[in-house]
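Report of the visiting student (M.T.), summer placement. My assignment was to run the structure pipeline on a short list of targets and document each run. The first record concerns DNA-(apurinic or apyrimidinic site) lyase.
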Amino acid sequence: MPEGDTVWRVARQLHEALAGEELIRCELRVPRLATADLSGRTVREVVPRGKHLLLRVEGGLTLHSHLRMDGAWRIHTPGERWRGGPAHQIRAVLGTAHRTAVGYRLPVLELIRTADEARVVGHLGPDPLGPDWDPEEALRRLLTAPDRPLGEALLDQRNLAGIGNVYRCELCFVLGASPWLPVGQLPDP
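After the run finished, the structure tokens were exported:
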């Protein structure tokens, strides 16, 4: 599963390709969004939150996606052959005059009001790569269950948003701590 840093990179690429541009093509290839059309709307920004992508468009709407294990977004120029998988795996196509973003194998794709984003990301803990990173809050959240194994606590997105297995292992290694060590037994959190 892509970790937070990968999602931040994807968000930056999508933002650079689409922000400030009017969508001239919108295909959301999931049944519940089959009639949704964002064409004619300008993309305001694309922001990551942990492992979630929030593509905000004018009119107070957000296209929320999550890559889970093997979802991907690819950006193409007009006329360029799309790469990323077979056509039946495409879940989203967002095109401007200059770029087309194609979402492959997106297990989570939903259109929500921007004002309702907290419904999908409000439970997340501080994001180490986010502008709101608060190490004290992250530590406080980790220590709320002192008997919980460190490795398990690090993977809980309510404690720290965007941490996956790779960073869990790296953090335990840097700390010199077993992932099975209860959080409350860390020598100097």
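The chain has two domains: 4-121, 135-178. The chain has a mean pLDDT of 96. I thank the supervising group for their guidance throughout the placement.
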